[in-house]
Amino acid sequence: MIKATWNRMKYAAAGLGLAAAAAMAGTAGAQMGEAAGFAELMQHDYLNRDMVLFAQGLDLDDGQRMILESLYEDYRAEFDAGWMEVQQRLGNLRDDLQNADESEIMDLILRPFENWRQEKTRIKEQFEQNVQVILNSSQLEQWPSFQRMIYREKNLHRGRLAGESVNLFNIINELRLSDRVREDLQPILTRYENELHEALQRRQEVSRELQNKAFASIRQQDRSTDAELLKREIDRRVEVRNVTDTFRDRIAEALPSDLGEDFRSRALEQGYPRIYRPMPVTRMLRQALNLDDLDNDVRETLSDAQASWHEELRGFNRQLLETSRSAEPRLMKNQVDVVQARQQGERIDRMTDPANEILSSRNERGRHYLNLLTDTLTPEQLQQIPAARSVVGEAAPSRRGADSTRPQRPTRGGGR
Questions:
Q1: Is 135 exposed, middle or buried, given 0-12, 13-18 or 19+ CB atoms closer than 10 A?
Q2: Do residue 262 and residue 279 come from a single domain?
Q3: Fewer CB within 10 Å, N- or C-terminus of the chain?
Q4: At residue 267, does pLDDT exceed 90?
Q5: Cα 396 to Cα 295, 364, 389, distances in angstroms
């Protein structure tokens, strides 16, 4: 065991770097390395495409944009040189590792990474300070709002909960609102921006604590789980999601009714695709009603089926949203408890997702309406429906040819 550990240290010093450092923690090495933020250490905080955000968000003129490009080149050069130095330090550890005892090995390997994390932050902050120097007074007034925007762009996507990573500003931009509507909406958007920024910062603070804990665990070869800290991070994720869910509804209510419904639908589908992704039977009913060769009785049957399905679907989706928002954090915390119990030689049961039963019921009702559709239309009519061809296939069952009895009309509200 000791010999194997020494060999891993030698490989790390020879250039395996991050991969070997993650392996220090044993079988949990990859997860520990991720928690410690090793992957982030080798990534630039700002990329070329971010300079477009700087230029547009701060309304830079052509001269300022040229200076920005030069500042960014300097930033990348300093970052790349610093990261190269980290790798060289790792490569120069061979002799030190050969002469070190086992208790010193971890510190020798991790110290360059910890020093680089601080240096990386300094390089980023220096770039930001240099950018502020080229701004005029009006642009400097925009700087705090711009910082919140760039922070949002860099951090919001790191969500793990459904609904946690939705950027409502992007959806607002997709709607192409008039200047008047946008102006009326601005007070709500400002509150959303501020509350989301604070929630993201609180989430990031716990993530930093987890990274520090992971570094300490790797150094001590300690695989134990800090369950309370992990659960606190989950709570911070819930806070971020709650801000978005709250302002999704506030913004929708402040918009004209048609735009508000469109906004809410887009936000829900982006945040909760498991619930709000379009279902095949919904498309099939819509496409079926667009057929030209439907007799009046068939059209009336399908129209009633569509209305009934939409009502049932709304009920299922409301139930799924409420259940998922409540259950997902508990499922994540249960997973933390399962891992901790395993580390202590104990065993606890995994929670089952209560949303699965609702999804199963929704799918069953969807199949009911699918069967109604295939029983109502002829095979030739089904072949005219693009969605039906992928769902029911070439040999779609139909009893229209054998039994001309009209199918019983669905009763609305049956899924409540």
A1: middle
A2: no
A3: N
A4: yes
A5: 20, 18, 8
Q: Which amino acid is at 145?
A: S
Per residue in 176-212, pLDDT tens?
899 999 999 999 999 999 999 999 999 999 998 988 8
Q: Given 271, 306, 321, which residue is the final one in a domain?
A: 271
> Does 325 reside within a domain?
yes
pTM score, whole prediction: 0.81
pLDDT of residue 343: 85
Collapsed DSSP state (helix, strand, coil) of residue 109? helix
Domain match, 277 and 267 both: no
Q: What is the DSSP string of 355-372?
A: HHHHHHHHHHHHHHHHHH
Rounded CA separation 412/405 (Å): 21
Count: domains in the chain: 3
Please report where in the chains the tokens 């500042």 appear, as a residue.
71
Mean confidence (pLDDT) of the chain: 85
Place of tokens 């060769």: 293
Q: Are residues 108 and 155 in the same domain?
A: no
Determine, yes or no, domain membership for 397. no
